[in-house]
Write a structure and sequence with these properties.
The protein is about 30% helix and about 25% strand. The protein is α/β, with parallel strands linked by helices. It has one domain (about 5-135): 3-Layer(aba) Sandwich (Rossmann fold). It has a seven-stranded parallel beta sheet, sandwiched between helices.
């Protein structure tokens, strides 16, 4: 069961992809298994690129779901991972299997569409009885 639902609410000064890259890099350094969930192949490829270029001096080792190699960080398009404990949700919907993770992360930036999706996700988790941690990133 999800023990922690974390919403990172970004100000205009931050980019959702860049923040995801930095957060994923930190989680990977802490040896946390991360699943970045999306429902769109094009977005999965953008995330893939963002993780290879997270910082000028490093990258976040990762794999796309379906590849033979398993990494601590996996990107999936409507795929349910087998071995991760943290999900970063980049999908428009909360996946049915969200509750199999110990921690779920939602990253919301000032884009009106993303704010609307974020509000829907927030309501979903609240309706399921989860307490939510808000992190405002200025």
């Amino acid at each position: 069961m999800a023990e922690s639902i974390d919403f990172y609410i970004l100000s205009e000064r931050h980019n959702r992809m860049s923040f995801m890259g930095r957060l994923t890099e930190q989680l990977q350094r802490d040896q946390q298994a991360v699943h970045i969930h999306t429902d769109d192949e094009e977005l999965a490829k953008k995330i893939d690129t963002a993780l290879w270029t997270a910082r000028d001096i490093s990258f976040v080792p990762h794999e796309l779901m379906g590849n033979k190699d398993q990494a601590l960080v996996m990107i999936g398009v409507n795929d349910k991972p087998e071995h991760t404990n943290i999900m970063i949700n980049f999908a428009n919907e909360v996946p049915e299997f969200y509750n199999e993770f110990t921690r779920v992360v939602e990253i919301i930036d000032p884009d009106d569409t993303l704010k609307m999706i974020g509000r829907e996700h927030y309501k979903f988790y609240k309706d399921k009885g989860h307490s939510i941690n808000d992190h405002k990133i200025d």
